[in-house]
Amino acid sequence: MTAVITGGTAGLGSQLAKGFLSAGAQVVCAARGPHEITDLLADHPERAAFVHTDVRDPDSLHLLMTGTAERFGRIDIVVANAGITRNGLVARLAPSDWREVMNTNVDGVFHTVQAALPHLEQSGGTILTVSSAMASRAVPGASAYAASKAAIEAFTRCCAVEFAARRIRVNCLSPGILDVGMGEIVGADERLRQLYWPRMLSGRAGTAQEAVDAAVFLVSPSASYVNGHVFEVNGGLL
What we know:
The chain has helices at about 10-20, 40-45, 60-70, 95-125, 145-165, 180-185, 190-195, 210-220, and strands at about 1-5, 25-30, 50, 75-80, 125-130, 170-175, 230-235.
């Protein structure tokens, strides 16, 4: 089993890489830099690889998928995780910041899925996109990020419909506040903790492992009857 993870070298992406390796997969982490996975690559030289990739560039994604298939023989799982945020109220948000978020978060997912499709058709594989609780919950200053994630959820459902006949399942993981990545920043800000923690039925941030466990389930045969679904992992965020 071979998995490709975009944005797979930092934050949740690096934790997904560890989780998939633990589940027995060969994992290719695609990003613009190795960031947090240097030790991971050293510990799993035969099963883990880093490929410099820019998800904004379709040719870069094509090379990633082709190279992965050549190295490991097949692609079974693609996790479109790469994403960025640029905060700012709508009245003040720079158009360049809006465009940068859309280029990475929306265009990047489209390019990733399109490049992976011919390879996944051969294995009857699985695609997992990554959204956010912000896709359906309004937060001042997060319009670009929230809009991009809402687009990803709609795109996921369309892909599930289009790819069902090709035996490819497509689901979306939608985390809330976690102890890694952007959620780690929220947890370190006392003002934001006072705002968000009372709104979570769990009363706490989620762990990276809790999100990883959900992702591993969604791409596994245990989830064979789950398709076109947005799977929320947010501690009951109100």
